[in-house]
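Field reference: sequence -> structure
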Amino acid sequence: MKKILLLLLSCTPLLLLPSGCAHGGAYAPKNTDKNNLESSAKFVLLDAGAQRSVTCASLQEGKTVDGRLQVKANVRNRENRRLEVQINCVFKDELGFTLDETPFESLILTENETRGVEFTAMNVKAKNYTIRVRQAR
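Structure field:
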């Protein structure tokens, strides 16, 4: 009787292990198109406060004399109060991979003001961009 009990106790952990570890391999990512606006849009608002208060009136793209991408955005305050936001630009190659990114800079907009902001890529490889705006921290 002792041998049977000892045998059952020694086999129990082996019976429980495989059922808890088998998951079936790797998983595909979920919702790859959802919340992926930065890959396709040229102007994005990073939080709900910026989405409610800020818009882009117009975008202008050009090249510098030495061939670097230059972007100008007219950022507009949609509210009747003074706003402080932060803005930056991510420059990307033709496949959408990030080449360089400007630091976030503060932008103060008075009531219903539209202000132009300009960004220039660091090298000639930049073919695309995304301007990002968030509430000031």
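Note: The longest helix spans residues 2-21.
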